Amino acid sequence: MNVVVVESPAKAKTINKYLGSNYTVLASYGHVRDLPAKDGSVRPDEDFAMSWDVDAKAAKRLADIADAAKGADTIILATDPDREGEAISWHVLEVLQKKKALKGATIQRVVFNAITKAAVTEAMKHPRDIDMELVDAYLARRALDYLVGFTLSPVLWRKLPGSRSAGRVQSVALRLVVDRELEIERFRTQEYWSVEADVSAGGDPFLARLVKHDGKKLTKFDLANETSALAARDAIKAASFTVSAVEKKPGKRSPAPPFTTSTLQQEASRKLGFDAKRTMQAAQRLYEGIDIGGETVGLITYMRTDGVQTAPEALDEARQVIGGVYGREYVPEKPRIYSTKAKNAQEAHEAIRPTSLARNPGKLRLEGDLAKLYELIWKRMIASQMESARVERTTIEMDCADGKTGLRASGEVVLFDGYLKVYQEGRDDADDEEGGRLPQVSQGAAARVIDARADQHFTEPPPRYSEASLVKKMEELGIGRPSTYASVLSVLRDRAYVRMEKNRFIPEDKGRLVTVFLEQFFLKYVEYDFTADLEEKLDLVSAGELDWKALLREFWTDFHAKTEEIGGLRTREVLDSLDGALAPFLYPPKADGADPRVCPTCGQGRLSLKTSRFGPFVGCSNYPECRYTRPIGQAEGENGSGEGGDRELGTDPDTGQAVYLKAGRFGPYVQLGEGEKPKRSSLPKGWSAPAMDLEKGLRLLRLPREVGLHPEDGQMILAGLGRYGPFVQHSGTYANLPTADEVFEVGLNRAVALLAEKRAGGAGRRGEAAALKDLGAHPGDGAPVRVLSGRYGPYIKHGATNANVPKGADPQAMTLEEAVKLLAEREAKGGGGKKKPARAVKAKAETTAKAPAARKTAAKKAPAKKAPAKKAAKAKEEA
Length: 879
What we know:
By secondary structure, the chain is an alpha+beta fold. It has six domains: about 1-130, 3-Layer(aba) Sandwich (Rossmann fold), CATH 3.40.50.140; about 150-180 and about 465-575, Topoisomerase I, domain 2 (Orthogonal Bundle); about 190-255 and about 390-460, Topoisomerase I, domain 3 (Distorted Sandwich); about 260-385, Topoisomerase I, domain 4 (Orthogonal Bundle), CATH 1.10.290.10; about 590-700, no CATH class; about 710-835, no CATH class. The strands form ten sheets. A six-stranded antiparallel beta barrel has the order 9-10-16-15-12-17. Strands 2-1-7-8 form a four-stranded parallel beta sheet, with helices on both faces. The chain has a four-stranded antiparallel beta sheet with strand order 23-24-25-26, with helices on one face.
């Protein structure tokens, strides 16, 4: 008997069919061990000894693997073909050895790049040992991430309260976003003009642009104002032109290579609007296999790769498909061979491609993200092996009689579309396009100006990073690994260091603060070159050219000394340093030239950066006599309140008290009257401070609002704004409202329906599972069916029944039919509500059965103090 260990249950099921009854294929469900989220998991003083914990869920799976291994002749470790896969095989083997489950069994490691019968059976013919050099590279990377997280993050928490963890790669990615924002803020718009003319040279008119004026070749900013531009325009109108040169150049456009992990994420972002995480989830499902005609088949090759090379048999198949679908003229004379340009390319893998190009996207019954991503991958691979596009570029030069004024027309025409028939690579930002086809023009012909015009332009700042452009930049700089980019960018969003607007990254104030802190005190460790150099050293470890512990010793010596030094600084010293570095951002110059640091309330105190347990803010030095504060990201007067920081909105007709708009450290708020404890209400998300008036202020101050009596028990339903946003509330049940405006508009029927839906979803407490998608009414009883985000992943909810969304499935792509089927399967197994998992109940029963009937209670030792779980978890960094 042979036992095969893979990572996912989907792969296990498929591979078991391929190998037959002599093989038992079991899944590890990804990583089975990790470093505990507490101090001491990596111990530099013990030559970087590492402690590993087995996840509670993984313990059951490892027990199953160990039970199967005890009677096996061969243990075949067939986890994914990359560094992480190698590490998982090593972890599984370590656990089996500790359990003494091997009993003389032969240990083999096999890798396959695709989940197809041919790829799997071929891989089984070529087993090898675990590549310990890859494992060492994994250990070094994991230790580095841990040491940075658990050493640097506590310093950050103490010196900059309100901040989250700082990670090795994530901090550098954040710096890229912040640096781009600084570029945008420093940018100063510059005016320039261009002049164009409609010209005819004996045939159809065409567009030409001014390239020479007053005998001088024009550069971009030579026409800097309207006066000079209009003078140039008039010079064109007054001149007579002759065609001085006509140049036609044949050219070619060649296709891009098939996808790597990075280029797939970039193109999916540009063309499909997917973020990196969504792309990798869909790619994982395509790789692991989709049911086609009753058989599960892997549709693409392994999706974590830096390689662009393709297997010879795939090249042959691509040429056959191209010839059959598009014609022989689209097949180049020889297959295209691509090579990896990245200097730190990951272990040699194929590019991402369909396992069979004969599976045309139009013939597969895929849906949602899977259909879109598979089509993208298929087209890219097909295009990469097609003939180049042939183009003709034409340039027409025209000069006036005295040679002082010159015009130029450029055009390009596609003579043969080649690969463009299938695919054209997307771009992050639009470039200037070549003109279209130009008419036939003879050199020496007279050119008549039909009309001329001058156009004003302004330079624009560099664009903020999109997911595609940020991934591209990180890869160019050698920061991190493309296989980790999805998790790195998710961390930036999850920690609220950045936000997304129009699919662009914008740094939040806390993200900017963390970056400035790291630049001021840990600059070396967020330098782009240092991070890239560290990646190269990790590659040397994986190549067997550098000892992994030597790398850790070199890093730790300087890093530990630096954290000890900064840890000894007083918080005020840190804040003063940040205050100076952020001065242009915190205290922008005033239009009247006055000192921007003078307190706008008391006129005597000086503004500076301060901190509280909620994070930094700007405050007056005359505290507590003067209580002026404002958030760090808000300039003076941004709340629309004028120089004093406050604005009176009017008088409340019910109380006769004044209503104020004020700026606090947590943002703008409205306040009723003065006194020791006046009534206040923060402005909800989406409400602009400059747009606030008395009516809006009173509406906020009169919350919570009475909606009406609930028809079941006659108790009042209230609508208000809370910690988790707008809500309706009745008898302890809170139901979220989509916008703050609906708090003032929601009617009784709508409120009753929302509360009923919330109760049907369970418990009715704020902060519970968030709804990802409403699928509609269950065909059986009409009750709502929803996809929720739970603590252990997305799941489907219908009444008291919960059913997990299958691993790897996109919860947003779930349909009502699929959900009903999963719910029925869950109910058939029994339960699905808020019950303990069957295996947990069974385990508890077994433990109880084995326990002695009676035992004297021994004196207990006082437990060692542990870091709070939440604080420990914050320091855990991306792998």
